[in-house]
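Here we describe the complex-level prediction in full. Unlike the single-chain runs in Section 2.1, the two entities below were treated as one system.
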Amino acid sequence: MKVVVLSGGVGGARFTRGLLAHLGPGHEVSVVANTGDDVWLHGVRVCPDLDTLMYTLGGGVHEGQGWGRADESTRVSTDLAAYGLGWDWFTLGDLDLATCLARTELLRTGLPLSAVTARLARRWDTGVRLLPMTDTEVETHVRLLDGTLIHFEEWWVRHRAALPAAGFEQGGLAGSIAAPGVVEALAGADVVVLPPSNPVVSVGTIVAVPGVREAIAATAAPVVGVSPIIGGAPVRGMADACLAAIGVETSALAVARHYGLRRDGGLLDAWLVDDADATALAPLRDAGWAADATATLMTDVPTTARIARQALALVGLDV
Amino acid sequence: MKVVVLSGGVGGARFTRGLLAHLGPGHEVSVVANTGDDVWLHGVRVCPDLDTLMYTLGGGVHEGQGWGRADESTRVSTDLAAYGLGWDWFTLGDLDLATCLARTELLRTGLPLSAVTARLARRWDTGVRLLPMTDTEVETHVRLLDGTLIHFEEWWVRHRAALPAAGFEQGGLAGSIAAPGVVEALAGADVVVLPPSNPVVSVGTIVAVPGVREAIAATAAPVVGVSPIIGGAPVRGMADACLAAIGVETSALAVARHYGLRRDGGLLDAWLVDDADATALAPLRDAGWAADATATLMTDVPTTARIARQALALVGLDV
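The structure predicted for the assembly as a whole is:
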């Protein structure tokens, strides 16, 4: 079976790990990763979601925090700070920095990010085909209520998304080109999955790459999403602040409606919500969605495998 | 007193530390550092001699090896190697890397290397004005006997200068411009010192920056050099391989003649050799040089201070 996952960082990576555990060998999983959070930091290219995916699927992630490397240290960033340089609110660990330096070195040879990602992923036995959504450099900025524009990472990491945002401005996104393989993977998929990633700045960014939304609309595969909202709050991350910025309520129902039903011009055919949000099922089913509820908290790999199984079952794929 | 030192890495840095110990406070020491060994490594700008000077004078050097940082680790380079990337023969420690990342970040803002160097040196209480010889990017390559061209650092670090060289090719050098302050420092100096640095790829490179040789010729200050050769061999480094490449014998006398007497169009007025090379004194004195011999091995700071004192005394500066 050919599966395509449109993923942000921690939530998408953990879901994909569970999906792989559920599927076992013999399937082809392509992960299209958001690169809208990427940032140039101290002259190196940081791609948070690609790396979280690579480490999580490759067994190198810091399990406790969900991103970054296990057994990490901060020798370089501490010394950089002694020069009065660096963003003191953004910690890039030594091992994480090595990945970013490797990426930067390869990018400087002229390779596109997709080729660089494939090269880096060779070290990590990810079990998937890891694709950046685009080779075009996209950077997300946040427009604050007072009109100030700050980098997404500053808003997210430094301010923990606590500054009310008027919206997101994503330089390069409108003119970006889907990375080689992305549109083809969607066209040839047996199923497309939206894991419980941030609907605005992760999945929302991926589907804003020209051609991606169209490829999802056109694919013969069913498209199923897993709600990132449990009981009216994001499980992790600060999706509520992102949803508020675009005027969407933080609820499983509102996020489903934001994505939209595919036959009505939206992205999804099916939506898996948490048991706490079961009240969303009736209105969704009435509107023509396939919808179901289960315990969606990804507490460990077996639990996540079970959630993935239920998501696939919702579109009739009992693998 | 205003002193200008034209320095390479380890030898020049140790000499300058001794010079500062000898002079004490109240003098103005400018160090013009060779940048011809600089290299782009994993996308970061490595300036070996500038950093060796900064660490040695600022109290952060790894005393045992003479370069790099004390309490160094190699987390990043080891992890970079796990990607099959990097030059495995060039180790850049984590703390050293932080300096290089800081430099790269500042260079990318558009600052020239001289301004970047001043900014980085603020952290290290060097006691000198540290100037790169030029803001122009210069890279030294080595032409091997079979015609192959390799980067100087590859020849120096990987092959320990063991591959016979036909010569050095220094891209950017002929068109380089002396960094702000270099020519002015030479013009306003009370004395110019050539420490026991590599005569070919350190001092030789500095004086090949257009205008520097002319500034040395024109200055009213006396110019004194300390021989880097003791008993027909370089004290450290592989100056013999460099001298062979340009057809100069590895001897205190031959290096003096290579530099040349200033009144005959050369660089020096005076030359301090080791006791082991005292036979050089008579021919030099006969040719009009001020010359003397002493124990020139820089075993510790007090010894080096004594050597610096003797070098200054040779041109009549009994400070």
